[in-house]
Amino acid sequence: MPLVEHAAAALALQIAIGLTTRNWSAGALLACGYFIGRELAQAEYRWIEQFGAGLRANAPWWAAFDPKVWTKTDQIADVFGPIVATGLLGAIMRRRATVS
User: Which of 8, 11, 55, 100 is the most buried (most CB within 10 A)?
Assistant: First the structure.
């Protein structure tokens, strides 16, 4: 996926939840939680393939956090893109609510 697609999808989810519940933080947390969990699972699979002989049982609890499996910029951007995008929108909406 191109670098901005995860951030755009996270914003869409945050907007949908924010408009229906007026809770922009809940939308951000749900969207970010999904993408962070997805990327950590993929990192764990990469670790298992590279260092665990293809067996999940060989993976330690920290396998998804091993820097050796986070080798591409887009892998890191897929985690931090949604965090930054939803954080900015949440801050804007919070400021807008206090100004009104």
Answer: 11
